[in-house]
Amino acid sequence: MSNIESVAQSYQHFNPRAYLQNNYVPPRADFSNEDSVVQWKLRCLADTCATGEIAGQTLVDIGSGPTIYQILSASEHFAEVVLTDYLEVNRAELRRWLQDEPGAFDWSPYMKHVSKLERTGGTWQEKQQRIRERVKKVLPVDVHQSNPLGEEMGTASVDTLVTTFCLEACSPNLQMFNKALGNITSLLKPGGHLLFIGALEESYYLAGEAKLNVVPVTEEIVRNALSDASYKIKEFKTYVMPPALKVGVDDVNGVFFAWAQKQDSQ
């Protein structure tokens, strides 16, 4: 069995609801605490999208998992949003929310918070409806393939990519992490933007019975990977995970946010 096959097998035990419970409710998603990691991520995304540079026809989120918080700001600036994940259980979780089915995860606290951050008027309910209308597809993705979305979307067809906690979590080693970044970059038009969030110095995380290995990366490693993939880094921020948020579901030390632009040479 190859390293990639081993990673794929480990994800067959991934529990979306356990993952959401571990990371997207308090204490990590505490909207009364400005220093919570979730508030930090949402601010990074909202501030970047407020520049006016993140816009176009098509936004693709690579490795969405069972979450949608990462597209709340960017989705306002695109006609078409595509969510993707390797696992059908995660794609099913996304569809459950998109179709407003009973039992779907409640993202309304996120909608309310981001609506306040953006200060663009309208209600959070209107924002939620716009997002549901703009997400046109939920697709399978394999970042270890040269064309991660297969025949669904060709190379250089996407205006902006978002990816959060995906590449380091699904790659068996640093070499494959770098290659996966190159693979998803092939989808992006020259001059297109990447909004990239990931874990710093993490070796594992839990999702129910699944214990998933992670490639530990540092700021230097991520910066070098972006440079090697022909990106110009426009902004790079880091967050140090406080002891109170180290709750035993992973060994993460921090989180990074990178905004990068693909150069014409790619």
From TrEMBL:
**Which SUPFAM superfamilies does this UniProt record tie to the protein?**
S-adenosyl-L-methionine-dependent methyltransferases
**Keywords of the record:** Methyltransferase, S-adenosyl-L-methionine, Transferase
Tell me which species this is from: Xenopus laevis
- Family designation: Belongs to the class I-like SAM-binding methyltransferase superfamily. NNMT/PNMT/TEMT family.
What is the recorded name of this protein?
Phenylethanolamine N-methyltransferase
> Which InterPro entries does the entry link to?
NNMT_TEMT_trans, SAM-dep_methyltransferase, SAM-dependent_MTases_sf
PROSITE patterns (UniProt xref) = SAM_MT_NNMT_PNMT_TEMT
Q: Where is the signal peptide?
A: none
Output one GO BP term: methylation
- What Gene Ontology cellular-component terms does the record carry? cytosol
The residues that the entry says bind S-adenosyl-L-methionine are 19, 24, 63-64, 69, 85, 90, 142-143
What are the GO MF terms of this UniProt record? phenylethanolamine N-methyltransferase activity
| Pfam families, A to Z | NNMT_PNMT_TEMT
